[in-house]
Write a structure and sequence with these properties.
Largest sheet: 9 strands, mixed
Keywords: Hydrolase
Number of helices: 12
Protein name: Inosine-uridine preferring nucleoside hydrolase
Family: Belongs to the IUNH family.
Bound molecules: calcium ion
Strand content: 15-25%
Number of strands: 11
GO molecular function, one term: hydrolase activity, hydrolyzing N-glycosyl compounds
Mean pLDDT: 94
Order of helices and strands: EHEHEHEHEHEHHEHHHHEEEEH
Low-confidence stretches: none
Shape: globular
Distance between the termini: 14 Å
Length: about 325
C-alpha cells in the first residue's frame, strides 16, 4: 500500500464510486471519506459511500457526513445523470451503514490534518462546501495538507447543469471561490473539458460487466443508467470525471499539460454562475485578478488513465 495518506471529499455519485474503487484498486492509503451534498442529498451520499467501501471489501474506512447545502442557494442535484439516489437508481442496503461516523466531515478534515500535518492528499470530487468550511473554521487547515486535487471548474465555458459552468463549481460557487483563492498548499484542478476529452473507450466499459470481479459488476450496474444516457447522446467515449481526478492523485504522470495561474469563480450571472475564470493572462498585471497560482490540467494521458482503470478488474 502507498505511504501517502489520501482523503476523498465526494458526493457519490457514480463517477465518485468509480474514483473510490480506483484508489483502492491501486492500493492507495485511503484513510477517510468525507461526504457533501451534490449529485444527490447528503443522506444518500453517506449511505452510497458506505455501500461502495463495503462492496470494495474495505468497510473499515471511516465515512463522515458533512454539509447538506451550499453556502448560498438551493441544492442542484444531478439525478438525471446519476439516477435517483445517485447510484443508477439502486438503493444502498440498510445494513451497510456501520462505517458512517458521528463526527462531522469538516471536524474530521481538521482533525486528520492535525494528526498528519503535511502528509495528506485531499481529493475533492464534489462541491467544495466542506473544504471551504474547513478553511473558514481553521485558517491553518490548508497549510496542513500535502496537496489538494479538485475535479471541478471549466476552461472554455463548457457547461453542465448551468450552460456556462461545471456542476461541482455550480453547486457552490462561493465555496469554490474561497478554496481557489485561499488554499495555501499546492492545488491541481482537473476541469470538465479535460475530463470530457479523456474518456475511456466504450469497449472498456463493456469489459467491466464481463469481468469476473464482483466489484466490476457492481460498478457496471450502478453506471448503466448514466452510460446509456451518454451513448444515447452519441458521446464517443465513456466520460468519468472523478475517476480521472483520482488517476491524477494516484499518478501525476497522467498529466501531460498544465496551465498555471490564479483562478476566480464567477458568483453571478444568469448562465455563468460557477464558471471558472483563469486569470493567467492578467497575472502580475492587475491585483484585482490576483490569487495563489494553481495548476489547471489542460491535457491528460488517456492511455495511462486506461491502464490504471484496468486495475479495477483485479479488485
Ligand atoms: Ca462527484
Amino acid at each position: 500500500m502507498s505511504d501517502n495518506p489520501i482523503v476523498i471529499d465526494c458526493d457519490v455519485g457514480v463517477d465518485d464510486a468509480v474514483a473510490i474503487a480506483l484508489c483502492l484498486a491501486q492500493n492507495q492509503n485511503l484513510i477517510g471519506i468525507t461526504c457533501v451534498h451534490g449529485n444527490t442529498s447528503l443522506e444518500n451520499v453517506t449511505k452510497n459511500t458506505a455501500w461502495v467501501t463495503s462492496v470494495c471489501k474495505r468497510p473499515e474506512i471511516p465515512v463522515f457526513g458533512g454539509a447538506e447545502k451550499s453556502f448560498i442557494g438551493d441544492n442542484l442535484f444531478a439525478h438525471e445523470f446519476h439516477g435517483e439516489g445517485g447510484l443508477g437508481g439502486m438503493s444502498a442496503p440498510s445494513d451497510k451503514k456501520d462505517s458512517i461516523c458521528d463526527e462531522h466531515a469538516v471536524s474530521a478534515l481538521l482533525r486528520m490534518t492535525k494528526e498528519r500535518p503535511g502528509e495528506i492528499t485531499l481529493l475533492a470530487i464534489g462541491p467544495l462546501t466542506n473544504v471551504g468550511l474547513a478553511i473558514r473554521m481553521d485558517p491553518g487547515f490548508s497549510k496542513r495538507l500535502k496537496e489538494l486535487i479538485i475535479m471541478g471548474g471549466n476552461t472554455t465555458g463548457k457547461g453542465a447543469v448551468r450552460p456556462g459552468a461545471e456542476f461541482n463549481f455550480s453547486c457552490d460557487p462561493e465555496a469554490a471561490h474561497v478554496v481557489v483563492q485561499e488554499m495555501e498548499c499546492p492545488v491541481t484542478i482537473v476541469p470538465f473539458e479535460t475530463c470530457y476529452d479523456t474518456g475511456l473507450p466504450w469497449e472498456w466499459y463493456d469489459s467491466l460487466a464481463q469481468s469476473s470481479s464482483s466489484v466490476c459488476r457492481f460498478l457496471s450496474e450502478i453506471t448503466s443508467h448514466s452510460t446509456v444516457r451518454q451513448q444515447n447522446k452519441g458521446k464517443p467515449t465513456f466520460v468519468m470525471c472523478d475517476a480521472l481526478a483520482a488517476a491524477i492523485a494516484i499518478d501525476k504522470k497522467v498529466i501531460t499539460e498544465v496551465r498555471r495561474g490564479p483562478i476566480h469563480v464567477e458568483r453571478s450571472g444568469m448562465y455563468t454562475r460557477g464558471q471558472m475564470m483563469e486569470m493567467s493572462a492578467l497575472w502580475d498585471g492587475d491585483k484585482a485578478y490576483s490569487g495563489p497560482p494553481v495548476d489547471v490540467v489542460i491535457k491528460a494521458d488517456g492511455e495511462r488513465f486506461y491502464s490504471l482503470m484496468n486495475g479495477l478488474k483485479n479488485l
